[in-house]
Amino acid sequence: MTPLAVVLTLFSCSVLVIRGHPGFEIQPEVNARRLLNSVHLQKQLTRGPLAQARSKRTSDHIITDCIFMTSEEGDFYHKSSIADGTACGAYIFSDPDQTIEVHFNYLDVPCENGGLVSFVDGWELNGQFFPSPSDHPLPLNSRFTEFCGKRKVKQTFKSSQNVALIQYRMPAKGTSFGFSVRFIKNPTPCNVLFQSMEDIYTLRNYGKRSNCSLSTLFPAAVRVASLNIGIVSSLGRGIELETGTIHKVRSQCQKRGLDDYLQIGGSRGLDNANLLIADSVCGLDSKPGKHVEVIACGTTTVRLVSSGAFDNSATVAIRGLTEDDINGYMSVFCQEEALK
Question: Other CB atoms closer than 10 Å to residue 40's CB: what's the count?
Answer without folding.
Answer: 7
